[in-house]
Amino acid sequence: MTDEASFLASYDPRDYPPVAVTVDVVALTIRDGRLCVLLVERGAQPFAGRRALPGGFARDEPLEAAAIRELAEETGLTPGEGDLDRVHLEQLRTYGNPGRDPRMRVVSVAYLAFAPSLPEPTAGSDAARAYWVPVDEAKDLAFDHDEVLADALERARSKLEYTPLATAFTGPEFTIGELRQVYAAVWGEELHAGNFHRKVLSVPGFVESTGGTTAKGGERGGPKAKLYRAGDARLLHPALLRPTREDRVR
User: Fold this and answer.
1) Helix (H), strand (E), coil (C) string for the chain
2) Cβ–Cβ contacts within 10 Å for residue 109, how many?
3) pLDDT (tens digit, 9 = 90+) per residue, 135-181?
4) Burial of 90 (0-12, 13-18, 19+ CB in 10 A)
5) At a CB cut-off of 8 Å and minimum separation 6, what does 29 contact?
6) What gap in Å lies between CA 151 and CA 141, rounded to an integer?
7) pLDDT given for residue 85 in this prediction
8) Which residues lie across from 107 on neighbouring strands?
9) Which of 20, 96, 126, 187 meets the CB 3.0–4.6 Å disulfide criterion with 107?
10) Contact yes or no for 206/236 (Cβ under 8 A)
11) Mind listing the pLDDT tens digit for each residue in 4-22?
12) Is 19 within 8 Å of 100 (Cβ atoms)?
């Protein structure tokens, strides 16, 4: 049997079809009450001029580091200096169907990123433009990015049901009304204010009171709203189901 050193010395990767690895980032934030995704306009072929999710080829680096680098390039946030600490980043799925990239066999590892109030984007080196687009207007994307975005949206909407991830879209302190706006924007559904308030406060560890209130009352002169912060729960029990899912469960 050939030992490993001898095998590696004679191994030629050109004996196999070439495969490249990329990362794609689905970055979501809420702007003017609407859930938006970060898109770039491709500045080079293939799909020059088409909108796409930000991403690129992985370098000699861990895949998560590549995703952070790509996100930083398009948002202007600085890795390692605290700017990205408020961004929730998680791996979504791997996409590797033959033909998804016309250049060669390309396997892409997609990441999902959430953060509140992300800044105006700045196009990276391989993009002509970068901008925030409401998710319901993000269509006909390059490669298989329509599928990637659809998967990311379903992941985000599902995680808001069972985890406290909605607080990743808020500031450190927030009102229940602001939290409700996050759920409404991500789910794309209107929520009853009273029912939502009751459900949130009935979930142990979801939120905790700061003891403070907003500086002033509501637009109609109502009382000041109580301020909350994220609690220590990692899973929501009972879960906060989307209204459309509640109807099916009953």
Assistant:
1) CCCHHHHHHHCCHHHCCCEEEEEEEEEEEEECCEEEEEEEEECCCCCCCCEECCEEECCCCCHHHHHHHHHHHHHCCCCCCCCCCCCEEEEEEEECCCCCCCCCEEEEEEEEEECCCCCCCCCCCCEEEEEEEEHHHCCCCCCCHHHHHHHHHHHHHHHHHHCCHHHHHCCCCECHHHHHHHHHHHHCCCCCHHHHHHHHHHCCCCEEEEEEEEEEECCCCCCEEEEEEECCCCCCCCCCCCHHHHHHHC
2) 20
3) 999 999 999 999 999 999 999 999 999 999 999 889 899 999 999 99
4) middle
5) 35, 36, 38, 114, 115, 116, 117, 118, 132, 169
6) 14
7) 72
8) 21
9) 96
10) yes
11) 888 888 888 888 888 899 9
12) no
Give me the residue label for tokens 């293939």.
46
Q: Which residue has the tokens 């109580």?
A: 226
Query: Is 223 in contact with 210 (CB distance < 8 Å)?
Result: no
Could you tell me which residues are beta bridge partners of residue 52? 40
| pTM, to two decimals | 0.89
Measure the N-to-C terminal CA separation of the chain; round to a whole number of Å.
Answer: 63
Q: Copy the structure tokens of residue 17.
A: 């079809």
- Name the CA radius of gyration of the chain, rounded: 22
Q: Crossing angle for the helix pair 176-187 and 193-202, nearest 10 degrees?
A: 110
In the chain, what is the greatest distance between 2 CA atoms, to the nearest angstrom? Answer: 83
Encoded amino acid at 19, one letter: V
Tokens 């509640």, residue located: 246
**CA 134, CA 33: separation in Å to the nearest integer?**
10
* Contact between 231 and 206 (Cβ < 8 Å): yes
140: its two tokens: 């006909």
